[in-house]
Specification:
The chain is of the alpha/beta class and 329 residues long. Helix content is 60%, strand content 6%.
Length: 329
Amino acid sequence: MDILLLPTLGPLHLLQPRYNAVTLLELTRKYGPDEVLLASYSPEGLVEGRWRDEEELGLFHLLPWSERSGVPVRAISRDAELLRAEADRFREYLEQMEKGQAYLEDERAWREELAEVLRQPLEPAAFGEARVLGPLTHYLDRVRENFGEGPATGFRQARMQEVAEKLRSLPPGRYVVWVDLLDYPLLLEHAPDLRLPGEHEPSEEERARAVMDRAWLLDEQDDWASLLQQLGEIGSPEAGYLAAQIYLAAGQVADAAELLQQVSEGDFHQPEYLPGYLLARLGQVRDLLGERERAIRAYRGVLALSWAPEEAREIATAGLRTPFRIQDL
């Protein structure tokens, strides 16, 4: 049995040009699996789309590909989301106690140390090397020493042990397993024979994703003109939305509105987070241009979607109450 294990970074993929959400898909596609397994989500969580609110960026690309290619995606971690929610409640309880607050302060410091490692440019092969596995394991060990294995960790150890047992019982075939970064070392501990990502040459799709990720994190120090040029070359609906974001940040409201309107008149349903963000921003720029009725239609469009990011829904709800103003940016 051949199983490739790929750690997922959730929203942290935005920080990794060489290990972004499309890299995960490219590595998966290249491996040619019979099935993709999600080790950190439950079947119910996958069906109900709970991963969206956890900003599991890779799944916004994997699931549409699964539909096109016919390669099934299956979640295999029982009660994963419920147990993670239990861990969140446990932390809320600790926040109410002085000693608990001290424990949480320690954990936040350790998490920041780990975040420093993950902010460095990483390639797929790095996730099989000590420079990443070492800090990950060190963080998990300290958390376990501080809180124990149980509610505070979302029963992470037990969940990954159960996942490893399920992997051993799979029928012969080729599989790719996606696993949350903090579950990753524990699954490796219980299933040490899994393949890990190796050297990988990025595709044009990955390079385009890296450009768009940079635009999502737009900073004053970035070369905005260069980003606009690259987004124009990509030419996708998401690239158009991000170019409009840059125009708006530069105070070019009319240009932003024109571009957002162009994108909204085409097919902009993928990635699944895009419709909510685009319509919410379109409502705001229409407000800035004094086109209140058109703004209201855009805001209502956000709330009519079957799912939209919480931030987009909040923008739309606020925009329906009060016209957006430039000082609100």
